[in-house]
Amino acid sequence: MSVQVPERLTETADPAGPVAAVASGNWRMTWRRLRRNRAALVAGAVFLFVVLACYPGAPLWAHLVAHRGPNVQNIQGTVSSGGHRLPVVRADGTPIGPGWRGQYLLGADANGRDLFVRVLYGGRTSLTVGLVSALVCTALALLLALPAGYFGGYVDRAVSRLLDLIWSFPVYLLAVALSASLVVGGLNVGPIHVGSSSLAIPIVVIAVVFVPYIARPVRGEVLALRNQEFVEAAIAHGAGPLRVMRQEILPNVFATTLVLFTLIVANNILVEAALSFLGVGVSVLTPSWGNIIEQGYSTIVTAPWQTIAPGIAIMITAVSLNVLGDGLRDALDPHGRLRGVIT
Amino acid sequence: MRRRLALLTALITPALAGCGGGSSTPSTGGGGSGGGGAAVNGGTLRAAIPDDPDHLDTGLSYATEGWEILESTGDGLLGFKKTSGAAGADIVPDLATAMPAVTDGGKTYTFQMRAGVRFSPPVNREVVPSDIKFAIERLFRVDSGGVGFYSGIVGADSYAKTRKGGISGIVADDKTRTITFHLTQPDGTFLDYIAIPFAFAVPKGTPDKDISTVSKWRIATGPYMISAYVPKDHITLVRNPNFHSWSTSVPAGHLDRVDIKIGTDPEAAVNEVANGTLDWYFEAVAPDRLTALKAQFPNQVHVYARNNITYFEMNVRKPPFDKLAVRQAVNYATDRGALVKIFGGQGTPTQNVVPPTLGAAYAKQDPYPYDLAKAKGMVAASGTKGMAVQVWSHATDPVPKAAQYMASVLDALGYKASVKTLDEGVYFDTISTQKGDPQIAFVQFDQDYPEAQDFVDVQLNGERIVNVGNQVTSNIDVPSLNRRIDATRRMPLGAARDAQWAALDKSFMQQAPWVPFLNRTLPKYVSPKLHGLVFNGTYYEMFPAMWLSR
After folding, report:
1. Full domain range(s) for residue A239
2. Cys-Cys link to B321, which of A34, A295, B314, B386 (CB 3.0-4.6 A)?
């Protein structure tokens, strides 16, 4: 039996209460507010462009223009540039730099690979890791925060201490430690076997270390919602805990979760880049923005384009996601209750 | 990102000396000397190294940084000629008055020690033969990585177990100033073992522990002594007041002092030398800076040849490399020129085991000219196509790039290649255990002493395969070749012995346990004021030869 409860949270009805509920009317209101935020719209368009460039754009460019994939090495080859044939990699190991040509538009790396193609494919990896790890992180956070806030007492204390434990480690140190241990031998727990070069490893590591960043604010909201009348009413009508959490509380923490999700995506892309730069993220054979920077770092003086190109890609993506996330937060949360929750 | 030229610890099967490495020690080198007119005495050398030396104890140091410093403070009965180029492999008397008398079919070596050489303060007394015996026995008591060099001495094995009563095969007589070594079997390389820092004189009474930071036991016989060592900060060398030069092969040194700053990375070192705040840096020039520096400061860049071999080993115990055709196919499919470019052009391509700097022991061969089509055919015929192969490398640039190149070669041959990267600090220890046991792995080996035995015997003799500290990382074990190695090792140093090593080099490359691809060089960038640069393959650059123009 479905429990009918009045829609009770609007931005005007309960300004001191939890974030506005996102009923269909509120979605329209949110969209209206978002449309008024031009910076957020531009940021959204930029992010969409990055996504399109990396997902459908990467193979199209590789096949139609560059004529080589991201891992094709061409150390001994030559390329036509300005009417001359130039070595892709010179005898002293210096790769060709950027130029107006289809092949090697941004130059090559030390292994003679097309840097522009690698940046596009690297974007796929970085975006995938950022998005999927944010999804996993959000799911884990909800799994912990909902029962903690709903049941309170022992369950809340146990979950809170777990979150405290994770948060007590410097986040990068924890991520590096977890990654370093997993990239050597992979993950082998019972029937679960994940290879050391699998993308699942950085995804899980990043997701786990950032769980408290979402779980804590969501738990706080659930604690507040738990004592609301509509929740009491649902319980009085015989709804069990799972049903109340799923049908009554979850929709009401959705807005908060959505805002946190957009912000954590940008954060996770940066963390992936950092871990890959440190050699404990994505496998070296899979291009990602982080490991492209790492592989170009040793030639930063003589071939700076190898680090600048993926660095700019990371910057554009992170800024666009952060501006978009801020706009979304402003639209969903006009009273600014989420400001400062995550930075 | 690491890039030390650390000697590999350990090795050695009982009774056979030798030493090995994955990363390593010095090599013989040509290379420049600073020139600059007549040498000037005095001044302080402003030097830097990237990290602490492994030890400043001759009993324990087994890395280039340590040997480079300890060469200027210590002496053994013999030494390598302190000069650049091939002559640096020549063994000459040092604390001994002459080369030893070799008797008993090459199993007994008798040295006469010179008088008048004194230890530095606070010991101050004369060096006597029993100090050499003490130094070698101490290696066993401090669990030195160098014990394998001396395990062929009669009684060494039992002393290694009991650590009591001394090594019976070393007889030192301080009255007659003689010391005699009795070996269990002839070993032409024994003179090399006596010339390396493990056999430098140490005053009796030195504690059986690492004395790197214990100033009162860092006793010198050479022109300099270590007056200060603060880990992670600095090392200071000053003149040894008790030193006097006793032969032309033991120079007195020109500098008054060497200040070594610890913790400078290669990029910063280039900038500091260019700014005039640094005279000399331990490591090679960062590869990406070399071309520009050569063009801009040709007189300040010096490129030394090293006794080095850089290769991928293929584990013959693991598929698909248990098949000879596959190993040969990988050799055919590897473009050595491409790999040399990945290493910044710092070296020469090779298909030999023995480096070209080892004279007659090197006979250039090219058994696997680049032929991808032929290689693909061999792999297809082997029935191993489609197998998963993991290429191991350490994380220090540009090695991961070389591993990625090798992965692309294996992909082109039809395998599913991946790359596994470990920190350099644990890499060589890991691949030298049977438990780690990669299918194919990057290896770099620099000599411990300038003899082809160090390359062929130590890395390819199947009798040396052990579970831990295994230098025969390919696990190649061909009994007929092992027997030829054993016979060659017993031969005296010389042309006949070198010819045997060259023949063995050819035989092993037919078995293709490796993909050798590079003999690396060591490019250095120094201050315009620094002259007298001498690069010895074993001791590396020599502080006593350096001088600063005013």
Report:
1. 40-332
2. B314
Nearest chain A Cα distance for residue B140, angstroms: 34
Interface contact flag, B291 A295, Cβ < 8 Å? no
pLDDT band at B27 (very low <50, low <70, confident <90, very high): very low
Contact B23, B536 (CB under 8 A): no
Q: Name all domains of chain B by residue range, CATH numbers in brackets.
A: 54-224 (3.40.190.10), 308-522 (3.10.105.10)
A181 interfaces chain B, CB cutoff of 8 Å: no
Q: Within an 8 Å CB–CB cutoff, is residue A111 touching chain B?
A: yes
* Size (chain B), residues: 550
| A185 close contact with B: CB closer than 8 A | no
| Torsion sign across C-alpha atoms B472, B473, B477, B480 | negative
Asked whether the beta carbons of B372 and B412 are under 8 A apart, the reply is yes
What is the number of H-type helices and E-type strands within chain B? 14, 22
Cross-chain residue pair B288–A301, CB shorter than 8 Å: yes
Give chain A's domain count. 1
Residue in chain A closest to B335 (alpha carbons) equals: A76
CA nearest neighbour of B3 among B26, B20, B21, B24: B24
Instruction: With H, G, I as helix, E, B as strand and everything else as coil, classify residue B109.
Output: strand
Nearest CB partner across the interface for A299, out of B1, B288, B343: B288
Residues 253-312 of A with CB under 8 A from B: 279, 283-285, 295, 297-303
> Which residues in chain A have their CB less than 8 angstroms from residue B292's CB?
302
Say how far apart CA B133 and CA B153 lie, in whole Å: 12
Q: Which among B17, B359, B307 has a CA at the least distance from the CA of B188?
A: B17
Regarding beta strands B347-349 and B416-422, do their DSSP bridges make them parallel or antiparallel, or are they unpaired? unpaired
**SS3 at position B540:** strand
In a domain, A13, yes or no: no
> For residue A298, what is the domain's CATH number?
1.10.3720.10
Helix count and strand count (H, E) for chain A: 13, 4
Q: How far apart are CA A282 and CA A276, in angstroms?
A: 6
Residue B173 to residues B3, B59, B178, B179, B201, Cα–Cα distance (Å): 44, 22, 5, 6, 15
Q: Which residue of B265, B401, B429, B521 to mutate against A (max A Cβ within 10 Å)?
A: B401
- Rounded to whole angstroms, the Cα distance separating B32 from B36 reads 12
**What's at A242, amino acid-wise?**
L
Taking CA–CA distances from A297, the nearest residue in chain B reads B397
DSSP A270-288: HHHHHHHHTTSSS-TTS--
Which residue is listed with tokens 């270590």?
Answer: B226
Residue A12 maps to a domain: no
Chain A residue with CA closest to B344: the answer is A93
A120 lies in a domain?
yes
Instruction: Say what the pLDDT of residue A20 is.
Output: 43
Q: Min CA distance, B55 vs chain A (Å)?
A: 28
Question: Would an 8 Å CB–CB cutoff place A184 in contact with chain B?
Answer: yes
Cα distances from B397 to residues A197, B13, B17, B286, B523, in angstroms, run 19, 32, 32, 10, 16
| DSSP-derived secondary structure for B38-70 | S-----EEEEEESS--S-S-TTT--BHHHHHHH
**Splitting chain A (343 residues) into consecutive groups of 10 residues, what average pLDDT does each group show?**
35 38 67 90 96 96 96 95 91 92 94 97 96 96 96 95 91 83 76 82 92 94 91 91 92 88 92 88 90 88 90 96 89 64 46
Of B338, B397, B407, the CB nearest to A75: B338
Its pTM stands at 0.81
Q: Which two tokens stand for residue A37?
A: 């935020």
Based on C-alpha coordinates, what's the Rg of chain A? 24
Phi, psi dihedrals of residue B59, rounded to the nearest 5°? -75, -20
Model ipTM value = 0.80
